[in-house]
Every structure is written in structure tokens, then in C-alpha cells.
Amino acid sequence: MPSFSLPPIHDNPEGGWGPSTSSIPDQFKFKDIPYAPFSKSDKLGRFADWNDLSSDNRQAVAGLPSTQTRAVGPGGRRRDGTQAFGSGTASAFAYFHVEDESSFSLVDNKAAPARRGTGFNRGRGGTRGTPSYSARGSTRGTRGGPAFRGAVNARGGQRRGGWRDWEKNNRTRESSVVISPQWSMLEEIEFHRLAKLRLEVDEPEELETYGRLYAYDKSYDRISTKTEKPLQLVDRIKYNPTTSDDPIIQQLASNGVAKVYTTDVILSVLMCAPRSVYPWDIVIVREGDSLFFDKRDGGPFDTVTVNENAADPPQDPAPPNPNNPNEKAAIPETASINTATSLSLEATYINQNFGFQSVIETSPPPAVDLAHPNPFYGPEETEPLASCGYRYRLFDLGITEDEDIKICVRTEVDAYSPGQGNPKDGQGLVTIRALNEFDPRAQGAGGAPDWRSKLDSQRGAVVATEMKNNSCKLAKWTVQSVLAGADLLKIGYISRANPRDNTRHVILSTASLRPTDFAAQLNVSLANGWGIVRTVTDMCMKMPEGKYVLVKDPNKPVIRLYSVPAATFTGEDEDVGVAEGSEEE
């Protein structure tokens, strides 16, 4: 019977798997073989170049003993000055598979079908359902699909930014008011701190009602894109004075009804401050134990913003350099109707005229006179008044029963809905607003779809886009409606008759919303808004009597409280003096 003997086992005294270095023959240990270091990003080169006639390389790579092998110094060179194998340029011994590629051929020469939704089509137009690339830096779907700003990355997601972002104008905005060196900053609050505030407020007490209301024309609720109606210019007067110029508020303040007095327009801006992007300012005057929140004449409260919360909002052209008269404006003259200022004036014009046009001034149904006539319409006025009702309401901001912090707010309603109760008792009240479309292809459109093609069939997409691009504006309208106690909020969808003409408009549709339900859709927290109002009130109550300005930073989510001289904003001379002798912060 043959014997069986085990082969020798070489144990690894160093520990670990595999043979130890002591069991490997010397000719395979690759001792003193020079080789340059490399990284993972380098191209793979040849292991050995047999075309090289020098014996050093062959013997060193093959691991053969050689008396000419020398140590390698820094830079991949040997101490004798010669270069180590593979330590030259990346292409010195790089392997290029040109011959292999040229000899390769497909059996099936049929073109592969295009994958939908991946990458760009480099031709002039894309196939159906496939996005095409345009020089404006946007991907546009076929058949009137929405435009999406920015490029698409390799993973199929949308990349922030767009084509030639580095060439776009600076987004720096100017402050809504010139900060004078005479002003002293007292407080600074970031928006993320404001968003954490919360205060529950009970139902308000109604003090007085003034004005006359007309019935809302329900035929506007049945308008569609196929039965559009032109927007008309209606000559009416509507007053919206600041708090200190209101004679009713002055009368209530003399009686000590509340500690804080303001209007719904000013209060809504403060309650929706964390959503705001554009700059604004509120003038605060403390007289004794009373606070008055005022607005400046010609300030941001008198106009309506457009696409304030869009990723790429409308811009104003940069002012020309006075040292270079030949310098051109940043925005061409053909696009001047789509600048931020022009669109704001256009939106203000649309809101006013839509509210005037959508009411029935001839009976039936009859106009409803509230408890008192319009307090701002004097006997010398001859132009007809617009439908407007003023409701002075009292809100209690006290946290405990012992605190006596009440705020008197002048709210406005625009019409009443027939058959919804008695407007004199606060039933069936309506506020009317309007959204405007200018040019879906213009800068600042915010990727809005074409209303004429999508409003009837895909209203949800249009509403979602407007809620994203005009979050602050819609939130302020909703808060104003809730403060006024309106039962309905009517929002009209108004577009230009021609995208290049900002003077003619058509009404495409009208939406009827419950303010409280719409606030829930917009994620508007009235408790958070009241918390902000209470915080600002406490902050101003700690200050001595005088005049203050609450300023929203034009480029940062921050509000600042300044102490200003008593003569600030009181006349043209003071304003000019402050503007000339001050510089922007």
C-alpha cells in the first residue's frame, strides 16, 4: 500500500492570510525595482514596453537580477539621472484602444429608440413628449407644455440655476426707504425666529361700519377661456388712507378704545412677513400708551407685487452709469413692460378695475348702505364712489385676562353676495382680487403655464404655480379677508390680450374661495401672524415716545427697528434732506 505524506506547510508568523515574505523566493520579491507612484485617476499604461531597447526596463520589470538596478529619487528619476519606467507623462506608455474600436462592428445596424425624458435632443425640435433645448436655458414640452427654468442634470433631476447664470444681473435689491445716518438701529429679528411665534386670538368685536356696498355680479363666476370678457376701465374713487389720516381712528384713539391702531393692509404685511422677499417699511408712532402703524405715501403698500416668491422674479433694469453715458441698460427697451416696476403698476391697475367692474351698480339688487357713510368722501367730491365698506374691528392680543392689549384694525370689503344674508350684519361679504398673466416666455414668469390652454383643463396646475410664485401676495389677501370677516374671496384670472401689450386685458376666469379654507391650503397660520404682531407691539412699548421705522432688509430675511427723528416723512423738504445727506445701508 503506497504511503501518503503531507506537503510542507509554510506558516505565516506575521499573522493574516496568505504566505509570508520569508516563504517567497528572492527572484519574485521584486526588491529594488523602481516604479513611479500613481493615482486612481491615471490611465493604465503598459506593464512593460518590449520595444524599449534598454535592458534596464526589461530586467527590472521581469524581476531578473540586474547589476544596473538603482534606487529611485523624487520625481520618478533615478539617482543616475535616468527616468524610471512609467514615470513620464500620462501618455508615455498609455494604452489606446483605437485599433480595437475600429475593428469592432455591430451585427444590428438599426438605430436604438430614443428614451423619453432623458437628456436633450440636439436638433431644432424634440420629438413628441421629449423636451428640446433652447438657447434661453429652458426645456419646453411640446404642444404648449410648461417651461421649466434651468438645466437637467445627469440623474434626470432639475438643477438649480439656468443657462449662463454667471451672465445674469446681480440680484441685489435696494431698500424701500433710504437709511439715514441719523437713524439708530434698536432691534433686529430674523425670519426664522418670527416663524416660531404663536398667539391664539378670539373673535373680534365690531366697533363701527362705514361705506356703501354693491352686489357682486355672479355672471363673472361663469366666465371661461372660451367666453373671455375684456377688462374695462372704470372711473371710480376708492380711499385707502394711512392710519394717522383716518378721522375715525383718531376719534377712537381719543376715547382710548385700544392701544394699537392700524389697517388691514399694513397688518397683513406684518403678519405675513416671513413670506416676503421684496423690501417694505412700516412707520410706527408712539404717543403715550398708543401705537400707530402707518404707511408712507408712495410706498410699497400702494402697489401689488408680481411673482415675488418665484425662483427668478422679475427685475428692474440696472441704473445707467453716470460716468459712461454710452452704457446700455441691462434690460432691452422691448422688455420694459415686463420689469418689476411695470408689472407692479399693471397688477395694481388690474386689481382696481376688476373690483370696480365685477359689481352691479344698477338695481336690482340694490346697494346696501352701512351704518355710516364713507368718512373720506367730502361734499365737494363729484366723482362716483367705488363699492367699498370699512369695518373697524377690535382684536384682543392679551395672553392673560389682566393684560389690556387690544388692537383696532380698519378692514375693507368690496361687495356683498346676494342671497347670503344681510350685509349690515356682516353676512355675505366679499373681497375681490385679481391675478395677472403677462408673458409665459418672459423672464420672471416663474415657469407658469399658458392660462388660455391650461386654466379650464388643468386649473390645479395653474393654481399650484401661482401659490408658489405669489405665496406672499396670496397670503396677504387671505389674511385681509379673514380680518375683515368676509365670507368669500373672489380671485380673477386676467391675462393680456396680447403678450406685448400691457394696456389691454381679458378676464379668463374667476375663482370663489372661503378665506379660512384657502388659508389652510396656503399653510397660512393666523396664530403665527398674531404672534408676530404681539412681539413687535411689546418691542415698541418698551421704547420711549417717538417715531420708529420697521424695515425689511432688501436682500436678507431680516427686519430691523430704527429710531428716527420726529420730522422724518413729514414733508417734502425733510424727505429731500434725508435722501441727500444719507447713504444706503
Strand content: 15-25%
- What strand order characterises the main sheet? 4-20-19-9-10-8-14-13-5-12
From the spread of the alpha carbons, the general shape counts as elongated
Distance between the termini: 104 Å
Query: Which assembly state applies to the chains in this document?
Result: single chain
Task: Count every beta strand, where a strand is a DSSP E run of 2 or more residues.
Answer: 20
Helix % is: 10-25%
Mean pLDDT, all residues: 78
Radius of gyration: 37 Å
Helix/strand structural class? alpha+beta
| Largest sheet geometry | 10 strands, mixed
The number of helical segments is: 12
Low-confidence stretches: 55-96, 117-161, 163-169, 572-585
GO biological process, one term: formation of cytoplasmic translation initiation complex
Keywords: Cytoplasm, Initiation factor, Protein biosynthesis, RNA-binding
Pfam family, one: eIF-3_zeta
Subunit structure: Component of the eukaryotic translation initiation factor 3 (eIF-3) complex.
Protein model, in words:
It is built from 12 helices and 20 strands. It has 585 residues and is of the alpha+beta class. The chain has a domain at 184-314 and 337-564. Helix 5 (264-271) packs across helix 9 (471-484) and helix 5 packs across helix 11 (526-541). The longest helix has 18 residues, at 340-357. Residues 55-96, 117-161, 163-169 and 572-585 have low confidence and may be disordered. It is found in: Cytoplasm. Its main location: cytoplasm. InterPro entries: eIF3d (IPR007783). Keywords: Cytoplasm, Initiation factor, Protein biosynthesis, RNA-binding.
